């Protein structure tokens, strides 16, 4: 679970991460949900090692997203280009 400062930042992170599905051969299933400014993620799989790899990859992506938002400033209040 990751609490982002404002709802819009959480939405940007959610919209970015939700399209990045786990490879089918990984045996790991990732489920993302967004509640206000809280991004919740659930990982499930049969091997702890594969889940750990999925978690590491997820947190690296989340860190990159939050660092990018800090570097370029807060996201626009609304994005309607899709």
From TrEMBL:
Q: Name one Pfam family in it.
A: Pcc1
- Coiled-coil parts of chain: none
Entry's family note: Belongs to the CTAG/PCC1 family.
- Organism, as annotated: Nasonia vitripennis
**GO cellular component: a single term:** cytoplasm
The protein's location, in the record's own words, is: Cytoplasm; Nucleus
Q: Which GO terms describe its biological process?
A: tRNA processing; tRNA threonylcarbamoyladenosine metabolic process
Kindly indicate whether the keyword Cell membrane belongs to this entry. Answer: no
Sorted keywords for this record are: Cytoplasm, Nucleus, tRNA processing
The record's annotation in InterPro entries points to: CTAG/Pcc1
Q: Does the keyword Cytoplasm apply?
A: yes
> What is the name listed in the Swiss-Prot or TrEMBL entry for this protein?
L antigen family member 3
Described function: Component of the EKC/KEOPS complex that is required for the formation of a threonylcarbamoyl group on adenosine at position 37 (t(6)A37) in tRNAs that read codons beginning with adenine. The complex is probably involved in the transfer of the threonylcarbamoyl moiety of threonylcarbamoyl-AMP (TC-AMP) to the N6 group of A37. LAGE3 functions as a dimerization module for the complex.
